[in-house]
Write the C-alpha cells for this entry.
Amino acid sequence: MNDLKHLTVYPLGDHALTIQLSESIDNDIHQFILQMTETLEQSHFIGFIEVIPSYHNFTVFYDPIRVYNHYHETTHFSPFHFVKDFCLNTLKAATNISSTEKNIIDIPVIYGDEYGPDLDYVASYNGLDHETVIQLHSEKLYLVYMLGFAPGFPYFANVNEKIVTPRKKTPRQNNPAGSVGLAGNQTGIYSIASPGGWQVIGNTPVKLFTPTKEHPSLLKPGDYVRFKPINQKTYDYYKEEYHYGN
C-alpha cells in the first residue's frame, strides 16, 4: 500500500497510539492492516505490548517507561514519538500482499422464527421477503475485520446494500450465544449470551468462543466466513452431535 496521504496518528492515553489509514471500510486496506499487525508482532521494539487491528486502523500498546529507558539516550524522542516513527517507518517499508490464500470457514445458520426474531423487521424495512433477505445475507463471502464487544465476537462489513438495516432503538437485554445480527452495513455473531442492539435474523449452533481452549476464539481477523442456511433438523444435529451452543 503506497498511498498514505490519508493516514493520521493520534495518542490513546500515555501508553498507546492509533494509526488510521482510511475513513471507509475496505478489504484491501484491512488486509494491509493485518499485514502490519503481523509485521509489528514479529519485529517489534523494546517495550512493545500488543497491536490490535480494527476496520481501518490499528492500535499499538507499549510500555512508555521501557521505551524511554531503552531508546532515550540514542533518539532523544518521547516514547510516543519514538513508537510513532517506528510504526511509520515500518509502514513505508511494507508492501501489499499480492495474493493471499483465504481461510474460509462455513458457519451454519438457522434463520427466522425464534432464532431470528428481527427477520420480519429487516424484511419489511427493506421491502423484501424473508427468503430474499436470507439469500442476500448468505450468498456473500465475509472478511473477519476484527473481534470485539464480547470475547470472540466477529465483525463483518459491507453486507449487500439491499439489507442494510439500522440498529434497534432499544437494545435487547439478552441475545443468545450464536445470534447472527445486522447493524447498518455490518453483520456479526454474538459469541456469548449478552445484551445488544443488532437486528437478530438467525442463530448458529457453532460455538465461537471456548475459554478453556488454547485458542479460545473460533475466528480471527483475516479469516473469511460463509453463512450456510440450515433447517431445524440440521440445527438439532449440530447441537446434539457436536455439543455446540450455549
